[in-house]
Specification:
The complex is a heterodimer of chains A (787) and B (161).
Chain A: H1 15-20, E1 36-42, E2 48-54, H2 56-59, E3 64-69, E4 105-106, E5 112-118, H3 121-128, E6 132-137, H4 144-147, E7 163-169, H5 174-182, E8 186-194, E9 197-198, E10 206-212, E11 217-222, H6 227-239, E12 246-249, H7 265-277, E13 281-284, H8 287-291, E14 296-297, E15 300-308, E16 314-326, E17 353-362, H9 376-394, H10 398-405, E18 412-413, E19 419-420, H11 425-435, H12 441-450, E20 454-463, H13 471-476, E21 485-491, E22 497-501, H14 510-522, E23 529-532, H15 550-576, E24 584-587, E25 590-593, E26 599-601, H16 602-610, E27 625-630, E28 639-648, E29 655-665, H17 672-691, E30 723-725, H18 745-764, H19 778-786
Parallel strand pairs in A: 1-13, 11-12, 16-17, 22-23, 29-30
Antiparallel strand pairs in A: 1-5, 2-4, 2-6, 3-5, 7-17, 8-15, 9-14, 10-11, 10-13, 15-16, 18-19, 20-28, 21-22, 21-27, 24-25, 25-26, 28-29
Helix pairs in contact in A: 9-18, 14-15, 15-16, 17-18
Chain B: E1 2-8, E2 11-17, H1 23-30, E3 49-52, E4 55-58, E5 71-73, H2 87-94, H3 104-117, H4 123-129, H5 141-150
Parallel strand pairs in B: 1-5
Antiparallel strand pairs in B: 1-2, 3-4, 3-5
Helix pairs in contact in B: 2-5
Classes of the chains: A alpha+beta (787), B alpha+beta (161).
């Protein structure tokens, strides 16, 4: 019988009622009295020198309040980068400035040049069109390899080149890696592209800045995954506002996927401008604007080589990657191709020697940063594709080759710094074979072929490092922030609880799942627990939601705070029952004295804490409210195995996903329904990357598909029902819930499954095709077959 | 500026609009009915779907003046006056057919229109009908399942967890 409450149950989500009734409170739903509206005039060239901005005609247009340009921000800090990477020579990365509004040059299509604040959106936009720009267009660099050639136009004139850093990991292991390759029985090489993506959460970004002159307090409402982070970055590094004078509120947020982590120019602008004009200032991105102002994702070009011995054991791996940073360093950008990617190159395998080289490059394109999976999809894709290729070259079954090389002893110290706490990769592979009915594939292929279609099966594994992150470790790696999480648990006099969490829910259902944990710990009904998140005014400092961290890190903080509550409550109960604290047990919402039938209800203990008449005041204070900050001791390591079956129409090259199965190990699971939903969403995004999506720049730095008309978002007809399973559970050994997190897995594990399947389909038809770069659009597949 | 009048969720609503004012802007900005959402600017995403005279319409692609005199139904009017969710709304909650909720108003309005036109749609018909509704969170699995459930079809064979 599945549980109906507590950990492991799937209660209906509380959030749904307001979302289904149209009474959600998204940032664009917020309208402040007297608000003005801002429209940003953005560069339509990829690279240029600003010789003049003439705002005279625009300023005279109806409704215009004030026009701002880069000159207005000269005394203001630039947008900071939150992670400093050290290159393979021990030197810090090149770190250019990132002004709120362009100063001197524009460096990508979409770079904001001027901001028109007016009484209405339309008036602001109309006036922006009247601004006269004198921009001397400069040659743009778009291709990464070209950008690091001598003589390439420099995106940033004050840097020595367009190379942000040349990172080697682990540099001391490089000679041993080279030696292993030299004596390998077999080497498989693969060159591939991890295509640039636009995250496109359905809610475009919005910012509303507000200023109270009487109290000198600024408020920013923003579509963010981490309001405290925005408050710290913007307050300390950009605008010089102390935290006690700056409130950041992220209300209902319509999806993030990483794109809403970063501190953006528009946030700083609206906060700054609200003070400048003493009125609220609101900005709402259009979707086309989002394409050229939201951080993009992925965009790696990689060569990967796998060395094997005569018995098909992996002996060494080396990779060289060019990673696009875009025109400026977004908040976490340098960490994505390095610490979130290089450290996963062992995958699920015992490969003893690994060397990863990453060259991060500036180009005249939109800045690139974390997007669902952030470095781990890139690592998984290249590793699982080269393994698949090796299997085909060697004539070995792709599953058998993987199983033979699986890590089976835990904890396992990889040669790329991370240590996996626990896992069972054979178990998830066994589960996959069962739920994907792999033994039935041959018959399904015969049927497809009878219908004139090719059919392919792609299988792969993945592992990821998430539950981000141990602060002292990431600090050593260059992070400029801690990555703990926080929770304040406030018990009310009549027994209900409010949990104020530093995590943020933008679709993950924390308002439903977090109470399940507390309810289970205390033995009360979930309805007695309320979750508060998103407002820096009423939550403790937390780093927010991304990197599959909310339950692993945020949930752990909540557990620790609740443990403190329970410990204090036991003292109160002991006093009320005149017993020894050591004899007090808590079960099903009541405190009892072990070995007796004396008990006192949770509610009575709570009331006693706030009406302390019969109370050990000489030992403990009244009240029942505790805070915990949890800094994890390690990452968590969810892992799994995925299988995709595709049909390929040989006449058109069109690929359809016929079946997709995912066997995941997320450790303990709090709400299975929500977990499955996270996997479904991730799978669709991974399928989208593999078959449909890809931001395309021309050689002049123009983004050719900057709207939903031209960027192929997955629709309902592009995907099937999925078969997902998370019954294989090796609990995390180092957090109190034993959870590993699940938010990114689907997007990490699915692209290789899809591409492996298409290659399998084409090879089944006798085509000697070993790889096609994503997206595997019909024309690319057709070209590969007929080219 | 021109006066426009319509009925929204059974109640009269009017205001002054420009010729270029979109129906979605009229609903959100002038009537304060922010349940209908704007997710794109090329009429692809469907977050803005409402019903105009009984038919599903993308309110971002209709001018407010074009709805003059029309009966408009939005997400705010789908539940009963006492708050009881409609069959489609309840099915979305039962089957976890939403995560961030931003596409949801348009999804519910499209699904409601579909079931009026086709009371027992197949999986394929549902997926095809939703071509104009993009979701980035759910992967569509639970949305399709919810719509089938709302139509009274047995969804026990479709994996829940």
């Amino acid at each position: 019988m599945p549980k109906d409450h507590g950990i492991g149950a799937s209660p209906k989500r509380r959030e749904d009622v307001r979302f289904l009734s149209g009474t959600g409170n998204y940032t664009d739903d917020i309208n402040l009295r007297g608000q003005a509206y801002v429209h940003f005039l953005r560069s339509d060239v990829a690279h240029g020198r600003i010789n003049g901005i003439d705002t005279a005609a625009a300023a005279a247009m109806p409704g215009v309040i004030r026009i701002f340009t880069g000159a207005d921000f000269e005394g203001v800090g630039g947008l900071p980068c939150g992670w400093q990477v050290t290159d393979k020579h021990g030197q810090p990365m090149q770190e250019p400035g990132h002004p709120v509004l362009a100063q001197g040059k524009v460096r990508h299509v979409g770079d904001p040049i001027a901001a028109v604040v007016a009484e209405s959106r339309e008036q602001a936009r109309d006036a922006a069109e009247a601004i006269e720009l004198d921009i001397e267009e400069l040659p743009a660099v778009v291709d990464m390899k070209a950008a690091v050639q001598d003589g390439a136009p420099k995106v940033h004139d004050d840097l020595t080149s367009n190379l942000c850093y040349d990172w080697g990991f682990v540099e001391e292991n490089k000679p041993a890696v080279e030696e292993a390759f030299a004596k390998a029985a077999h080497v498989t090489t693969l060159e591939l592209v991890n295509n640039r993506l636009v995250a496109n959460p359905m809610e475009p970004r919005v910012a509303v800045g507000d200023y109270n002159r009487a109290s000198d307090e600024s408020t920013l409402y923003t579509t963010s995954q981490n309001p405290h982070v925005i408050r710290l970055l913007m307050g300390a590094f950009v605008l010089g506002i102390p935290e006690h004078k700056l409130r950041v509120v992220a209300p209902d947020v319509g999806g993030g996927f990483g794109t809403k982590i970063f501190h953006y120019a528009e946030e700083a602008f609206c906060t700054f401008a609200a003070k400048a004009i003493n009125r609220p200032v609101k900005w709402t991105a259009s979707r086309s604007e989002a394409f050229i102002s939201d951080a993009h994702g992925r965009d790696h070009v990689t060569k990967i080589e796998l060395a094997l011995d005569g018995d098909n054991n992996f002996t060494a791996l080396r990779t060289e990657t060019y990673a696009n940073m875009g025109a400026y360093l977004s908040t976490f950008a340098p960490s994505v191709p390095t610490w979130l990617h290089g450290t996963l190159m062992a995958g699920n395998y015992k490969t003893p020697l690994i060397y990863v080289n990453v060259k991060a490059v500036f180009t005249n394109t939109v800045p690139v940063d974390a997007y669902r999976g952030a470095g781990r999809p890139e690592a998984t894709f290249q590793l699982e594709r080269v393994i698949d290729k090796a299997a085909r070259e060697l004539g070995v079954d792709p599953i058998a080759l993987r199983r033979q090389n699986f890590i089976t002893e835990f904890p396992y110290a990889t040669p790329v710094a991370v240590e996996y706490d626990t896992g069972d990769y054979n178990a998830t592979m066994d589960k996959l074979e069962e739920i994907a009915d792999l033994s039935g594939f041959a018959a399904r292929r015969a049927e497809s072929e009878a219908n004139g279609k090719l059919r392919g099966l792609g299988v792969n594994c993945y592992i990821e490092a998430c539950g981000i992150a141990p602060s002292n470790l990431v600090g050593q790696l260059g992070a400029r922030a801690g990555l703990y999480e926080s929770a304040t648990v406030r018990v009310n006099a009549t027994g209900g609880l409010v949990v104020m969490t530093g995590s943020h829910s933008h679709g993950q259902g924390h308002e439903t799942s977090f109470p399940q944990v507390i309810a289970e710990m205390i033995g009360i009904d979930e309805s007695m627990v309320e979750i508060v998140h998103g407002d820096t005014a009423n939550t403790p400092m937390g780093m927010g939601t991304y990197g599959s961290r909310s339950l692993a890190v945020g949930g752990s903080a909540m557990v620790r705070a609740t443990e403190k509550i329970i410990a204090k409550a036991k003292k109160i109960a002991a006093h009320l029952m005149e017993a020894s604290e050591a004899d007090i047990e808590l079960k099903d919402g009541a405190f009892s004295v072990a070995g007796t039938d004396k008990s006192v209800a949770w509610g009575d203990v709570c009331l006693a804490a706030y009406v302390p008449h019969n109370y050990p005041l000489e030992e403990i204070e009244p009240g029942l409210e505790e805070t915990a900050f949890y800094d994890p001791s390690n990452f968590t390591y969810p892992a799994g195995a995925y299988a995709c079956e595709v049909e390929v129409d040989p006449e058109t090259g069109k690929v359809t996903i016929e079946r997709f199965a995912a066997a995941d190990d997320f450790g303990n699971v709090v709400n299975p329904m929500i977990v499955s939903g996270q996997v479904h969403g991730g799978l669709a995004q991974g399928i989208g990357q593999a078959l449909l999506e890809g931001a395309v720049y021309d050689e002049n730095g123009q983004l050719l598909n900057a709207s939903y008309m031209d960027y192929a978002m997955p629709r309902a007809s592009d995907v099937p029902f999925y078969t997902v399973d998370h019954s294989c559970q090796t609990p995390c050994t180092h957090n109190p819930l034993g959870v590993k997190g699940c938010g990114e897995a689907g997007a990490i594990g699915s692209p290789p499954a899809v591409v492996n399947a298409v290659v399998d389909a084409l090879q089944s038809a006798g085509r000697d095709i070993t790889h096609i770069d994503m997206p595997l659009s019909p024309s690319r597949v057709w070209q590969a077959m007929h080219g | 500026m021109t006066q426009v009048s319509m009925t929204v969720n059974g109640k009269p609503a009017s205001g002054e609009v420009e010729g270029r004012t979109l129906l979605v802007s009229f609903l959100r900005d002038q009537l304060g009915m922010t349940g209908t959402h704007v997710g794109c600017d090329t009429s692809q995403c469907g977050a803005c779907v409402v019903h105009v005279d009984g038919k599903p319409v993308k309110s971002c692609t209709m001018l407010a003046l074009e709805a003059d005199g029309a009966e408009v139904a939005t997400i705010e009017g789908q539940a009963a006056p006492d708050g009881t969710l409609s069959a489609v709304q309840q099915a979305f909650q039962d089957h976890h057919g939403l995560q961030c909720g931003f596409c949801t108003p348009g999804m519910v309005m499209s699904a409601t229109a579909l079931l009026k036109e086709n009371p027992k749609p197949t999986e394929e018909e549902i997926r095809g009908y939703l071509e104009g509704n993009i979701c980035r969170c759910t992967g569509y699995h639970n949305i399709v399942k919810a719509i089938m459930a709302a139509s009274g079809q047995d969804v026990t064979a479709i994996a829940a967890e």
